[in-house]
Amino acid sequence: MRAEARRRVAVTGATGFIGRRLLPQLAAAGWDIRILVRRDPADVFWANLDIEVVQGDLVDAAASRRLVEGADAVVHLAGLIKAPRRADFMRANRDGTRHLAEAVAAAERAHLLLVSSLAAREPGLSDYAASKRAAEQAAFEVLGARLSVLRPPAVYGPGDRETLAFFELARLPWVPLLGAPEARSAVIHVDDLCSALVGMLARLPTGRVETASDAHPAGYRWREIMEAAAGALGAKPRGYFQLPRPLLRSLAAVGDIGRIIGRGNMLNSDKLGELRHLDWTVGDGELLNLPGWAPGFDLKTGFADAVSSYRAAGWLPAA
Length: 319
Description:
seven-stranded parallel beta sheet; alpha/beta; 14 strands; Rossmann fold; single chain; three-stranded mixed beta sheet
């Protein structure tokens, strides 16, 4: 019988942005780790970690069963963030989650920690948001109280190429603001998100949906975010301006054409709807209740950490 300190956790999406940062924290917390991947991974973050690899994906029922067999907990990070069609999002996010939940339900003692997205709160905004809400519903239908769901807001930090684009914009002499002036968005550094996930695994499943953010769940306005990005870069923009909505719609229309021809561009009408949404804040009733956990990064220190990592990787020029 394994000692309590060496419980086993199974992880999907381990090779993604969040997964690469999560695995070292899980190992440090005393978990034995098993991951589901399509091919053997090679990652500098895992150089000294003892990780069991199951090859396959979530459409492979046998691979899902091997992943969760004997596991105490399962962290589901895998998901599709861009795709040409709604059906692609649903197949990966909703159906993949259901397949995993069914494997967990058949396991002896495992419970599931589903890492969703704050976008799931507004399923009408985009195909992605709808698929994340549908994934939550599918998991609850199968597992009920053997499930915990965490909806992160915007996640940033080392290794994330999606938010890198905002730092590139903050280097410009005149910095465009994509969202409305009154819009607010909560954020969280990836390492704080990972420490929250590790903490959630140490407690019993809640059967609830919760959201983790930095110490400002009321979020930030677009100008605050871009000013903090410029400050982390040491840039001194001449000013900030609202990007005209007709121009944003035109850019999104180009992305829509990309979706039609099978290219999952990040900027399209769906993504524009998410970017222009006014309320990505986290209310008191949604906020993660996890005694002993607190975010370690604020916007200034978190952005400084992200910029330092981008420069070390050669993704941004040196100061």
